Amino acid sequence: QVQLVESGGGLVQAGGSLTLACAASGRGIDIYTMGWFRQAPGKEREFVGASFWTGGFTYEPDVVKGRFNISRSNTYNMAFLQMNSLEPEDTAVYYCAAKRQSNYGKYDIWGPGTQVTVSS
Questions:
Q1: Quick one: which of 19, 22, 32, 44 has the fewest CB in 10 Å?
Q2: What is the pLDDT of residue 104?
Q3: What average pLDDT does this structure show over 40-63?
Q4: pLDDT at residue 116 tops 90
């Protein structure tokens, strides 16, 4: 079973950029689809995007709007969410999640989250 910890969150001005990292331990992520989610105050958690274990990516277009990029390093057991042109509406706790040998369906491994705050 893999364990996940996010880092890289913080306070940024609107229009700025942040790159979140997700460090995995316990076993390699090569057989895991790595997803990113976020939850804003008072709102439900929403899907941002994912890096499939079989290769390829998917994004939630209404969230990403062409501004975010997901990457991964199976060698270093890490996943990344690069966020550009940040808006105050992107303020949320961002979570890394994983699911084993599946590109779709429920994620069953979650990190504790990292706070991203975008000031106007």
A1: 44
A2: 86
A3: 95
A4: yes
Whole-number pLDDT of residue 54: 94
Q: pLDDT tens digits for 6-42?
A: 999 999 999 999 999 999 999 999 999 999 999 999 9
Across 1-120, where does the E strand assignment appear?
A: 3-7, 10-13, 18-25, 32-39, 46-51, 57-59, 68-73, 78-83, 92-100, 109-110, 114-119
For 76, the token pair is: 């270093």
Task: Compute the distance between CA of residue 79 and CA of residue 32 in angstroms, rounded to an integer.
Answer: 11
- The CB density around residue 99, as the number of other CB atoms within 10 Å, is 19
Burial category of 114 from C-beta neighbours within 10 Å (exposed 0-12, middle 13-18, buried 19 and up): buried
The predicted structure's pLDDT at residue 38: 98
The DSSP annotation for 64-96 comes to: HTT-EEEEEETTTTEEEEEE-S--GGG-EEEEE
Distance CA 105, CA 118 (A): 30
